[in-house]
Specification:
This protein has about 775 residues and is α/β, with parallel strands linked by helices. It has 28 helices and 25 strands. The strands form 4 sheets. The chain has an 8-stranded parallel β-sheet, with helices on both faces. A hairpin with a 2-residue loop joins strand 2 and strand 3. Helix 4 packs across helix 5, helix 17 runs antiparallel to helix 18 and helix 18 packs across helix 19. The longest helix has about 35 residues.
């Protein structure tokens, strides 16, 4: 039996016209709910709010289950009245304003389904529009007979089913082939078998699991294959989440191989709007963007076409079809996502309240399976997702840009600026001030400012400097959104930087939000990474301590990976003194075998100090600069692929610590200077105090573990395939401490503690001269 969300049915068939600012903002979801609640609080006794409608109808020998929530079911002596509430920032008494056909269609479908088991023949429908800024209301009333509604309902259903039957055919093909397809490689590695078994059990129980999966396990294929096998229902979806382009590329490669081996499934790669926008614009106004014009009239046929001719829809394919149909590539990709089986995308499409796909994680019939690749990256990202900030300079710029707005948001902006300075200038000590309570007065000003700006943008086709206005407008809206979501895991923080005050709501622990999405809007999650050390740290800060754990052995020969620990004082105050010994140990490590090496430093300052005094006649020394473009990053990587001896001096935790593969003779060893201990600053100190109170692990959770994660990632550059051979040299006396040694991965078995340069040279020389068994 197919479940059909009534809202989805109405919008799919009847949404038409242009893609507009009001639709693309997608910022008023929570405000809309609040206005709904305000109207519903006025209902009299006997009225029902959020009435759950669930009706099954047999049509053309198939059962269809229609579900939805009616905002209000009201009654008088003789009638049933259904009310649908819609909020808008448009002027509803403007002569150009008309009810949207999709809104009325939704209400009509509710009306027909309500009358099915009633003895009455007519029903009254009330489509209520409420302006968000003024709460002005306008009612559109309709009295329709059961017969009229029946004709409308089945005409709508026929249109929907003409497309849905294609979707159904694709879904059945996927169900049949996922059941029959075999693992695409002749041999299943031990780690792969264990990972797939654990994933299947987890998804069967709609649960959470963490998999420590070292490089070489084959975790991309293992996770995708397990997720696809778990998809046993028509509407099942599988999200493959990754923060890196290399992760997306691996998932694409795995999907293409499975399809080549007989899988019938569709997949799409979602790309950030700013990257694939065909006009590189923030506005979605049909007068400014031709790809917004008649978007909804073209989207159904464009979606049908791309799905008919492609299995894995990459960015290039999406852009080709976007140009072909002249439609917005970003919104096009989101529409396609509801019609495919696998969605490959960044974490934010699932977990970020500013970007998550509401159609999958709040509304609709879907509860996807989640595969979270390189899951260690999600921790820091999640804190950013649930934080928000703006500055006084932002407010001043916005005031200047909106001077000509008739509703004068500049007046509120000036009041807000003066309020912040008057209240907080005297409280700021050492350039910061923080509190565990929010400032509600700031939010009141922001709400008024945003409503005035959105009103002008929605009701005027042309606004000067619109992109610049929107950039700051979104910052303020994000702040309001995070404020509504905030809880005891947030602080209110003001920082003074270069005479500019930045006002923030900073999230210290996002685990409750992530866990809610997983438990209430998905069918289970598999987190996997090679660097989930220690596991309780990640479980606490990602899923509130929930979830099982499996640690897989490295498939590579440990004799081919030599790990050396050697003392060095890398603390900030002693770095200048350390340079002589540091450079001597670097030379000792890379002299036995000329080749290609990377040294990772804790900062650019330390890197540049070392580079200034490091002299190597036989090596080309290349250094990472701040603010490299993608092209410049690739140029540095390509230097390792050219003939000659290369020593790269890079920053730990930067772009070269993760996601690059230098296989075989492209990299012979990595040297890491320091333990990755994070910089001591006010924000990290706040985190330390918070984690100490909540988990009794303040120093570890704020400084030690996230820093050591960078060490593990950088160390992982050495061995990428089973034929690689190389060494890791850890330079810091703190690596001898028990708390760090307990974090060493289990595959660091070939480990030596050495002090002198001569010992380092000798051991590494023997390592290169010894043939691994």
């Amino acid at each position: 039996m197919r479940s059909i969300a009534i809202r989805e049915l109405a919008y799919f068939v009847y949404e038409s016209g242009n893609l507009t600012n009001e639709l693309s903002f997608n910022n008023s979801h929570i405000e809309g709910k609040n206005i709904h609640s305000l109207r519903q609080s006025e209902y009299t006794d006997g009225a029902v709010k959020e009435y759950y409608l669930n009706k099954t109808i047999k049509y053309q020998d198939e059962d269809y289950n229609f579900i939805g929530f009616i905002d209000g079911v009201l009654r008088n002596d003789t009638k049933i009245i259904l009310e649908e509430i819609k909020t808008t920032s448009k002027e509803i008494y403007n002569q150009k304003f008309e009810p949207l056909e999709s809104h009325l269609a939704q209400l009509k479908i509710y009306g027909y389904l309500m009358l099915l088991d009633k003895s009455i023949d007519t029903i009254e429908l009330n489509l209520l529009y409420i302006e968000r800024s003024t709460l002005t209301r306008r009612n559109y009333k309709y009295e329709l007979t059961k017969k009229e509604l029946e004709v409308f309902f089945y005409r709508t259903l026929d249109i929907y089913l003409s497309y849905f039957n294609e979707y159904l055919e694709r879904a059945i093909n996927r169900l049949v082939t996922t059941k029959s397809i075999d693992f695409p490689y002749d041999k299943i590695r031990d780690g792969q078998a264990l990972m797939m078994k654990a994933a299947r059990e987890t998804f069967n129980n709609n649960d959470i699991i963490y998999a420590l999966a070292p490089t070489g396990i084959g975790k991309t294929m293992s996770s995708l294959f397990s997720g696809l096998k778990a998809m046993t229902e028509i509407d099942d979806k599988l999200f493959y989440l990754t923060a890196k382009n290399s992760g997306k590329a691996s998932a694409i490669k795995a999907m293409k191989l499975l399809i080549k081996k007989g899988l019938k499934a569709k997949a799409i790669i979602l790309t950030a709007k700013k990257k694939i926008c065909l006009l590189k614009s923030k506005t979605c106004n049909p007068d400014e963007c031709p790809f917004a014009k008649n978007f909804f009239n073209k989207i159904k046929e464009a979606t049908r076409d791309i799905l008919k001719n492609n299995d894995v829809i990459t960015e290039d394919i999406l852009l080709d079809y976007s140009f072909k149909y002249e439609i917005c590539s970003f919104e096009y990709s989101l529409n396609i996502s509801t019609n495919v089986d696998v969605i490959i995308c960044d974490y934010n499409y699932v977990f970020d309240p500013k970007a998550k796909l509401i159609r999958f994680f709040e509304e609709g019939p879907y509860r996807p399976y989640l595969l979270v690749d390189e899951a260690h990256n999600l921790l820091a990202r999640s804190l950013d997702m649930y934080s928000a900030s703006f500055s006084i300079f932002d407010l001043l710029k916005l005031k200047m840009l909106t001077e000509d707005f008739p509703n004068k948001p500049g007046k509120d902006l000036l009041y807000l600026i003066n309020y912040i300075h008057k209240k907080y200038d005297s409280l700021i000590s050492n350039s910061y001030y923080y509190d565990y309570s929010k400032d509600l007065e700031i939010e009141n000003y922001l709400f008024s400012i945003c409503e005035k700006i959105q009103f002008v943008l929605d009701n005027n086709d042309k606004v000067d400097f619109k992109d610049n206005i929107l950039e700051i407008y979104f910052l303020l809206k994000d702040y309001l959104r995070i404020s509504r979501l905030s809880n005891d895991n947030h602080i209110f923080l003001i920082k003074l930087i270069d005479n500019n005050l930045t006002i923030s709501l900073k999230c210290l622990d996002a685990s409750s939000y992530l866990t809610d999405i997983i438990e209430n809007h998905s069918k289970g999650a598999l987190f996997f990474s090679a660097t989930l050390y220690p596991i309780n740290y990640y479980k606490d800060l990602l899923t509130m301590g929930k979830g099982s754990y499996i640690a897989l052995d490295s498939p590579f020969d440990s004799n081919k990976f030599k790990v050396i620990v050697s003392s060095l004082n890398t603390k900030y105050s002693d770095r200048l003194k350390s340079l002589g010994l540091l450079n001597a140990k670097i030379k000792a490590a890379i002299s036995p075998k000329k080749g290609k090496y990377i040294v990772f430093f804790p900062s650019y300052e330390y890197l540049n100090m070392c580079a200034k005094y490091l002299e190597l006649d036989d090596y080309e020394i290349i250094t990472q600069k701040q603010g490299l473009t993608e092209f410049e990053q690739q140029e540095l990587i390509d230097r390792f692929k050219e003939p000659g001896n290369v020593l790269g001096l890079f920053v730990l935790g930067g772009i070269f610590s993760e996601g690059i593969d230098l296989i075989g003779d492209l990299l012979h060893g990595v040297i890491i200077v320091g333990v990755g201990f994070l910089q001591v600053n006010i924000e990290n100190e706040i985190l330390k105090n918070f984690y100490n109170a909540k988990y009794d692990k303040g120093l570890e959770y704020a400084y030690v573990y996230p820093g050591f994660n960078k060490v593990i990632q950088a160390a992982g550059r050495v061995i990428r395939t089973e034929t690689d051979k190389g060494f890791l040299l850890l330079l810091d006396y703190r690596y001898r401490y028990k708390k760090y040694q307990e974090l060493f991965p289990s595959h660091w078995k070939n480990l030596s503690y050495l002090e002198t340069e001569d010992d380092i040279y000798e051991v590494i020389a023997n390592f290169w001269n010894t043939k691994a068994e």
